[in-house]
DNA sequence: CCACCCTCCATTGTGTACAATCGCAGTGTT
DNA sequence: AACACTGCGATTGTACACAATGGAGGGTGG
């Protein structure tokens, strides 16, 4: 319980996910990354004091980071009860995916119009990084980089509200993938990302949109969202305990 | 400087925009409403201490409310410099409107599928309130209610991420309308809202979407987004002071 | 007279103490 | 034995004190 990172007071940019300036960004990034890499399982309680001790900052900072994570839907903030890692239900996952299809289509069309050569180069670089991560077997980094690819694409679309929305959707998607992805398959084949970049570079809007939609299909076909897997329905979860002897109210309380 | 609202400690729901429980919601709602009603002009500085004194709470609460407003794009939060009422540029306004078209189309289609009779009744009630506000000449309340109508519609679409995004877009749109709307015309003709509800009730998706798109057209056609109106360009703003005698640099300081 | 710098003040950023709240366990009652 | 109630412990919610930053104004030197 006494371990603590270096106070991270002003180190310009720390380890892996260390972003720009302020402390909350660092805390935010570290927690987010831990969630994506499944070092923090859905439902895990995120105590302010414990986190504060770990990162060497006060609860004030932690609180801001948690608030931001909650706003993006990665963390659930229950009043007076503290924060837990969100555990999206199948229904919530469906809603996120529906919204993403909508946004990704628009983003793709806009990116075809506005992406600069420089941005396209950056996108290619990101795909490389992503491939490296997967070949190293670093699944968490792979999921994260794959998300950052889609976020970068949103930036190429040059529409601030869409970028902000996409950030939230990508975060939640990453969490959903971490939670629901079946087996060990690489979830976001970088090959599709490459093809997509090619289409954008050729300014072929129709092709790019088609590729993106197929990409979306692939992503959610790899998830076990089809009625099975972890359910919120207590009856379903404990159905093996339910004896079908009498249809009375006996199983009502576990 | 000494005036202060009643401490608003635990009054279940105060005045006009008083929402659910906690204090930040109240502060948030009051500031937001003040911005919409143009009692707070774009660019106005929002000092934490001053607001804290006005609402009778500590800076902590104010800070949270401001942070939330900033996240919705209604307030601009400059590090170490404090918060100001956002003053969206023409370009930003365009981006918001583009995103709104996208979202409203999806919301309309989903609402046609999922809206319950009860929700439709609520929507009709909101249109009535909106009409009342405008006939009373209460422009601020009108803009706000009109926004809430679109938000209610989003709720009928039953997609949490879309609702959240729509909330942010509606907030920003309201600010833009307050800032750019030409003259005294009612900006969001409740008539169009009524027609839209009718189409949704008849489950006519195509008609509903068409009406919504026309509605969007109307809204931004009423705005002076076409290069003119309140500009960021100081030279343009103060052009009436510029004497065309000499093209020297004399007018550089007012 | 203008430009630069330096000090001071106002305001925000952060840490921490105290208060309020919730969940849980122990106890008593039916 | 099961339920309800009450007190306790732990954790979050709020306020406030102090530190740090940025801007404005005055002063000095060129």
UniProtKB/TrEMBL annotation, chains A, B:
Gene3D superfamilies from the UniProt entry: GntR ligand-binding domain-like (1.20.120.530), Winged helix-like DNA-binding domain superfamily/Winged helix DNA-binding domain (1.10.10.10)
Region annotation (Disordered) ranges: 1-20
Keywords assigned by UniProt, alphabetized: DNA-binding, Transcription, Transcription regulation
GO molecular function (one): DNA binding
Residue ranges annotated for the HTH gntR-type domain, each copy included: 21-88
InterPro entries hit by this protein: GntR_C, TF_FadR/GntR_C, Tscrpt_reg_HTH_GntR, WH-like_DNA-bd_sf, WH_DNA-bd_sf
Protein name: DNA-binding transcriptional regulator, GntR family
Species in which this protein is naturally found: Pseudomonas jessenii
């Amino acid at each position: 319980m006494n371990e603590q990172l270096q106070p991270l007071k002003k180190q310009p940019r720390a380890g892996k996910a260390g972003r720009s300036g302020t402390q909350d960004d660092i805390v935010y990034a570290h927690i987010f990354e831990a969630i994506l890499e499944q070092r923090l399982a859905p439902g895990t309680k995120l105590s302010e004091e414990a986190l504060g001790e770990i990162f060497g900052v006060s609860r004030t900072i932690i609180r801001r980071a948690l608030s931001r994570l909650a706003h993006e839907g990665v963390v659930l903030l229950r009043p007076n009860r503290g924060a837990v890692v969100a555990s999206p239900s199948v229904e919530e996952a469906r809603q996120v995916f529906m919204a993403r299809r909508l946004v990704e289509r628009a983003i793709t069309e806009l990116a075809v119009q506005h992406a600069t050569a420089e941005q396209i180069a950056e996108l290619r670089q990101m795909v490389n990084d992503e491939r490296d991560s997967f070949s190293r077997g670093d699944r968490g980094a792979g999921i994260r980089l794959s998300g950052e690819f889609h976020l970068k694409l949103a930036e190429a679309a040059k529409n601030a509200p869409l970028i902000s929305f996409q950030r939230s959707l990508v975060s939640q998607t990453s969490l959903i993938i971490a939670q629901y992805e079946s087996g060990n398959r690489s979830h976001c084949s970088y090959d599709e990302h490459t093809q997509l970049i090619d289409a954008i570079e050729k300014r072929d809007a129709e092709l790019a949109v088609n590729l993106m939609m197929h990409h979306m299909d692939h992503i959610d076909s790899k998830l076990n969202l089809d009625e099975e897997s972890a359910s919120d329905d207590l009856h379903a979860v404990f159905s093996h305990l339910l004896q079908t002897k009498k249809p009375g109210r006996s199983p009502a309380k576990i």
